[in-house]
Amino acid sequence: MKRTRLALFLIVIMGLITLVGCGSEEKKDQNSQKDVVEINETENEEENINKDYVRGNTPGNLSNRGLVATDGKWIYYANLNDESKLYKKEIDGIKNVKLSDDSVSYINIIENWVYYSNSNDNNRIYKIDTNGKSRAKLNDDHSVSLNVIDDWIYFINESNMGNVYKIKTDGSKLTQLNNADSDYLIAAGGYLYYTNWSDFGIIYTMTKSGKNASRINMDYGTFTNVVDNWLYYVNGYDSNKIYKMMSDGTSKRGIIEDSASYINVVGSWIYYRNESDGGKLYKVTTEGKERTQLNDLASVNINIIDPWIYYQAIKGDSLKSFRMKLDGTEIEELKIEE
User: Fold this and answer.
1) Other Cβ atoms within 10 Å of 191 Cβ, number
2) Domain limits at 119?
3) Which of 46, 182, 195, 322 has the smallest number of CB atoms closer than 10 Å to its CB?
4) Is residue 338 assigned to a domain?
5) For residue range 256-279, what is the model confidence (pLDDT) as tens digits?
6) What is the CATH number of the domain that holds 214?
7) pTM (two decimals)
8) Is 294 a domain residue?
């Protein structure tokens, strides 16, 4: 997958030889598609951007591989210090529990279920209850960029040329939504947003039933976030600077002069890896003000659960998981605790 090649390029720049726990996301040969529902056979969905959707993780986290998610009581995370296995930790306590030996990414929490891509099984979609029971496989395809919205999972199917698919949270109604090599999939409102590698990496949008696919603008965009009808992205046509525009493509503007990656937008702040300063973690307001350095380590996969930033950085000879407060204080390594 193109995202992996970009991530590996950035990691080489910061001096890493391998990225532990990321797993392979290269293109796979076409897998079983016998249960795919054709687009024109799907049920009529109400495409209403004002509808209140229940989502399993934030757009910013999912653009950073979705390694952390929360249900409000527990934080669920891929513990890189234990082969990216699925753990949960009390938000207001010290209890830390391993839920599964699966190596996970794109974690989503809906009600009492955890959904994820399992790199121990060719990145197929799995679910497990929040107590670590009733584990089940939902599909047979190499699946990344999972966005769980209500009772649908939207994802990129690397077993079929990176096309966007959806599947019910019970594993039924597998449906192909486009015919484009896609990346950085984000579901927001009634729409899906994605980087279209079949069209030079330009950002596209379509409805959640796969209709009306079209360019938003002409930029090569990655690390997409959609927050409050604003779309934030790294503009590959302008030295990887951070841009924003309305989700309909209007009001485009640059945010900051830094070359950036791994952006995560929360409230009025953008957290990002600053490629112009050795990959260190920075933040800046969505208006481009109060630019602030937060750490001294080259960092990747920036996930945020208020009031914490979860990220990975090199320590010794391997990549480790860390967290720190949103202002850069209280940095600590996430270690294995039984």
Assistant:
1) 17
2) 2-333
3) 46
4) no
5) 999 999 999 999 999 999 999 999
6) 2.120.10.30
7) 0.88
8) yes
Closest alpha carbon to 109 in 148, 156, 140: 148
**Using an 8 Å Cβ cutoff, are 292 and 282 in contact?**
yes
Angstrom distance (rounded) from CA 101 to CA 120: 9
In this structure, what token pair is assigned to residue 242? 């951070």
**Per-residue pLDDT reduced to its tens digit, 118-162:** 999 999 999 999 999 999 999 999 999 999 999 999 999 999 999
| 141, 157 Cβ separation under 8 angstroms | yes
For residue 27, give the nearest of 172, 106, 143 by alpha carbon. Answer: 143
Dist CA 309 CA 292 (whole Å): 14
| CB hemisphere CA count around 270 (13 angstroms) | 34
Domain presence at residue 172: yes
The number of distinct structural domains making up the chain is 1
Task: State the amino acid at position 160 in one-letter form.
Answer: N
Identify whether 108 is part of a domain: yes
Secondary structure of 148-171 in the HEC alphabet? EECCEEEEEEHHHCCEEEEEECCC
Ramachandran area for residue 228 (φ above 0: left; ψ -120 to 50: alpha; else beta) = left
